[in-house]
Amino acid sequence: MILVTGGAGFIGANFVLDWLRGSDEAVLNVDKLTYAGNLRTLESLQSDPRHIFARVDICDAAALDTLFSTHRPRAVVHFAAESHVDRSIHGPADFVQTNVVGTFVLLEAARRYWASLDDSARAAFRFLHVSTDEVFGSLSPADPQFCETTPYAPNSPYSATKAGSDHLVRAYFHTYGLPTLTTNCSNNYGPYQFPEKLIPLMIAHALAGKALPVYGDGRNVRDWLYVSDHCSAIREVLARGEPGQTYNIGGWNEKANIEVVQTICDLLDAARPKAQGSYRDQIAFVKDRPGHDRRYAIDARKLERELGWKPAETFETGLAKTVRWYLENQPWVDEVASGEYRKWVETNYTKRV
Ligand code: NAD
Ligand code: DAU
């Protein structure tokens, strides 16, 4: 089996669902269930013996040791993290704890377990760390995309803690020989994304008749990747990546935020027209995010060259699927947008408008 951390979150849950659609190899899903973790997403696996769920914090070394020795996974795919940049600005402590300390505790537990394996199991073992393009900092419009050798220059507490975790993973390969792999991916979107992030937030606000809060001038650029393409890239890297290497994953879809928001409005205008006017009328430019990175862009050619991976979705097909999914799964959104989430919206947006 494989051990997945953070498998009740957005990308982790998509990964688990995709994995079990294509394989009978079991998944041990280790998740603390923070506000971002939601077992409802994994409802279809409730009576599936290939999915074992453990509500465990990755900072809990003893619980991790027990999970490793009981289930004896052949690989770890590490998604668990605090993942929202705005939350890291309001409260960085949880980010240091989970992203840095948690990754360290997990690496130590994996190393203890790995050291106990026989030679062939040791050689086959993999620790795949899922990271972000944000560790590379911010690009100007004319800069080339981030490649695997771009120097790290994280600018937010979130990206700084992800950079810290990447460095620990690198060190465990070089110092102890733990067979690690690291992926640095661009912005994901798709089903089951928590509505604090740009795309699901705009869909939810549009349908609720609320303002669509675009930070700053709306010209910040992100490189968008449909979540199932991220999952397929991770499967490739896990299967055939070279230990010690890092792989950039991206969709070749650079878009300014305002363009993304306008496209969402147009898709909603077509699918669920308003009584009067367009959803575009709800767009409101609000106070910028402090330290807001201007542009991210990923050069994913290494992954294509070495492992033959390419994204299957374009931004147009992926966004259309995403908007449709949110329209058809309103109860999922209503459930996750609970009391805690409403408090967050107040914290992040009230003083902005
Ligand atoms: P998410 O916030 O939706 O989910 C995170 C999951 O981790 C949740 O299920 C949460 O309960 C769990 N978790 C948090 N702290 C934990 C802890 N201490 N112990 C155990 N579980 C814990 O995040 P996501 O968007 O799915 O991102 C997953 C990973 O991918 C993260 O490492 C993130 O840095 C990385 N990433 C995300 C994106 C993106 O666009 N969302 C892009 C590139 C990389
Ligand atoms: O690049 C990969 C990263 O992408 C991941 O590592 C992070 O986990 C993930 O959250 C995401 O980070 P971003 O900060 O880019 O994503 P977010 O959806 O928060 O914002 C996308 C862009 O939209 C960003 O430029 C800020 C802007 N934005 C966001 C929100 C929530 C707005 O203009 N208004 C908003 O309300």
Care to give the gist of this entry?
The protein is an alpha/beta fold. It has helices at residues 10-22, 61-71, 85-90, 93-115, 119-124, 157-176, 198-207, 227-240, 257-271, 301-307, 315-328, 330-336, 339-349; strands at residues 2-5, 27-31, 51-55, 75-78, 126-132, 180-185, 187-189, 212-215, 221-226, 246-249, 254-256, 283-286.
Topology:
Elements lengths: L1 E4 L4 H13 L4 E5 L19 E5 L5 H11 L3 E4 L6 H6 L2 H23 L3 H6 L1 E7 L24 H20 L3 E6 L1 E3 L8 H10 L4 E4 L5 E6 H14 L5 E4 L4 E3 H15 L11 E4 L14 H7 L7 H14 L1 H7 L2 H11 L4
Parallel strand pairs: 1-2, 1-4, 2-3, 4-5, 5-6, 6-10, 7-9, 8-12
Antiparallel strand pairs: 9-11
Helix pairs in contact: 1-8, 2-4, 4-6, 7-9, 9-11
Bound molecules: nicotinamide-adenine-dinucleotide (NAD) and 2'deoxy-thymidine-5'-diphospho-alpha-D-glucose (DAU).
Nicotinamide-adenine-dinucleotide binds next to α1, α4, β5 and β7.
